[in-house]
Amino acid sequence: MPQRDASRRTRIVGALAILGIIGAAVGTILHLHAIAIEAGTHEMRNLSAVLAEQTARTLQGVDLVLGSIDGELKRHPVSDRSGNGAHAAHLMLRDKIAGVPQIERASVVGADGALLVSCRR
């Protein structure tokens, strides 16, 4: 019987050791998972901030160009499509959007909704 008890104790100790190792492995995995989630969240916040800043700067650049176009059109209005300032407006639009990769096309629409002049980069 003593040998049987020793064998039983050995199996119990072995089973507890295995459970301890599995528990430690699960704990380590959960800890590493939490660290990875936290690092990913931090990276996403940083990326979001960078993208928000870049988007704001892009929109500011476009807004400046559109404001400049508006100012030019107030000084030299386009009265109709047939000519009265349309060619000059076309050239001005082309010059204004030439250095702005965010603007592919600019158009001037009259008060009646008719297209007066348009230009592609």
Structural features, described:
By secondary structure, the chain is mainly α. It has one domain (2-120). Helix content is 72%, strand content 9%. It is built from 2 helices and 2 strands; from the N terminus they run ααββ. The protein has helices at 2-75, 86-98, and strands spanning 105-109, 115-120. A two-stranded antiparallel ribbon has the order 1-2. Strand 1 (105-109) and strand 2 (115-120) form a beta hairpin. The longest helix is centred in the first third of the chain and has 74 residues, at 2-75. The N and C termini lie far apart (95 Å). The mean pLDDT is 90.
Descriptive key words:
121 residues; mainly alpha; two-stranded antiparallel ribbon; 2 strands
Short characterization:
By secondary structure, the chain is mainly alpha-helical.
**How many strand elements?**
2
Strand content: 5-15%
Give the SSE order as H and E letters.
HHEE
Shape: rod-shaped
Helix content: over 70%
State the strand order across the main sheet.
1-2
Spans of at least 5 consecutive residues whose pLDDT stays below 50 are none
